[in-house]
């Protein structure tokens, strides 16, 4: 058992090293996964419907280091899934501003949901699915307001319901809601070595594969990962048949 886990890890590392999409094994990305003093990571929070999908919508973007599903925008202390009070389901995105900007994240935000549906996304109806851009500081508020105006000018037949709010407390959701799309995919979980809970939540690789599992990666990356996984499964790996 121990040995097979080691073989897993070794193979995954070589997979990651060879990978054209530069998926990296979480243990190998200590320094840059948290930024550095010179180049700190930044954080953005958006509400755009179910946080399962929201997390996946941002997870595969270049420059996004980590995503977390959670609750924000309301007043109830310590919200939980079954009692979130007036909060909205949200995704918190940790990103490297040298690679992706708040503006680009806003573009993905608009492209990833229907901002004109009132209090809901598709079949998910309710206050918890409302659309919100959370901002930290005047520059982000300005960019958010501009992008909302631009979105509104696309069509005047309905109103953009998105709110722009100063970010207060972000409450991470319960573990079973983190990387939800990836969690539903046993093959992918196995391929990354069945990470323990805490690592799964913090891992950049899991963040990326969560987007892949939901088929929300940019098409080129989606195809690259597909090919990599097909290659591994065709070779009969990683199922260990003998020691
Ligand atoms: C990165 O940050 C996470 C949580 O913010 C922490 O648990 C982890 O130890 C940090 N890793 C490094 C290498 O500093
Ligand atoms: C707001 O941004 C500043 C740096 O620009 C950062 O130190 C602070 O943690 C951010 N606040 C939140 C709630 O993300």
UniProtKB/TrEMBL annotation:
<keyword id="KW-0560">Oxidoreductase</keyword>
<dbReference type="GO" id="GO:0033744">
    <property type="term" value="F:L-methionine:thioredoxin-disulfide S-oxidoreductase activity"/>
</dbReference>
<dbReference type="Pfam" id="PF01625">
    <property type="entry name" value="PMSR"/>
</dbReference>
<dbReference type="InterPro" id="IPR036509">
    <property type="entry name" value="Met_Sox_Rdtase_MsrA_sf"/>
</dbReference>
<keyword id="KW-0732">Signal</keyword>
<comment type="function">
    <text>Catalyzes the reduction of methionine sulfoxide (MetSO) to methionine in proteins. Plays a protective role against oxidative stress by restoring activity to proteins that have been inactivated by methionine oxidation. MSRA family specifically reduces the MetSO S-enantiomer.</text>
</comment>
<dbReference type="InterPro" id="IPR002569">
    <property type="entry name" value="Met_Sox_Rdtase_MsrA_dom"/>
</dbReference>
<comment type="similarity">
    <text>Belongs to the MsrA Met sulfoxide reductase family.</text>
</comment>
<dbReference type="InterPro" id="IPR050162">
    <property type="entry name" value="MsrA_MetSO_reductase"/>
</dbReference>
<feature type="domain" description="Peptide methionine sulphoxide reductase MsrA">
    <location>
        <begin position="43"/>
        <end position="182"/>
    </location>
</feature>
<dbReference type="GO" id="GO:0005737">
    <property type="term" value="C:cytoplasm"/>
</dbReference>
<dbReference type="GO" id="GO:0034599">
    <property type="term" value="P:cellular response to oxidative stress"/>
</dbReference>
<protein>
    <recommendedName>
        <fullName>Peptide methionine sulfoxide reductase A5</fullName>
        <ecNumber>1.8.4.11</ecNumber>
    </recommendedName>
</protein>
<feature type="signal peptide">
    <location>
        <begin position="1"/>
        <end position="22"/>
    </location>
</feature>
<dbReference type="GO" id="GO:0008113">
    <property type="term" value="F:peptide-methionine (S)-S-oxide reductase activity"/>
</dbReference>
